[in-house]
Amino acid sequence: MATTEQLQLTGMSLGELIPARFTEVWFLDTEFVALDGEPNIPVSLCAYELRSKRKVEMFFDRRHENPFTNPDALFPATASTFSPNTPTWSTVSGAGRRA
Q1: pLDDT digits over 35-57, tens only?
Q2: Rounded Cα gap, residues 75 and 97, in angstroms
Q3: 94 has which bridge partners?
Q4: Comparing C-alpha atoms, which of 20, 49, 44, 17 is closest to residue 32?
């Protein structure tokens, strides 16, 4: 994804750089609880849709309908990991993928 400085050099907004065929562009953030020796348990998901400015907040203590039903949506992805033995976060950005 382009940085703010790169966007300023092009004179374009982030919305203008994303192809129009993606009618929705969602940015997601999730939170998990990790207990020793157990798989991660999802706690919440927050999402922001770039074009409509729609926000979604879901906490997984109850069931929710899937808000992401548009087949022409783009979900740019970033994966972050944290190791207790390393004092810094490691982030890897990936290309967006159609839902």
Answers
A1: 888 888 889 999 999 989 999 99
A2: 6
A3: 77
A4: 44
> What HEC string does the chain produce?
CCCHHHHHHHCCCHHHHCCCCCCEEEEEEEEEECCCCCCCEEEEEEEEECCCCCEEEEECCCCCCCCCCCCCEEEEEEEEEECCCCCCEEEEEEEEEEC
Answering whether pTM is above 0.85, one says: no
In whole angstroms, what is the distance from residue 89 CA to residue 53 CA?
28
Chain segment 67-94, per-residue pLDDT in tens: 999 999 999 887 665 555 544 444 444 4
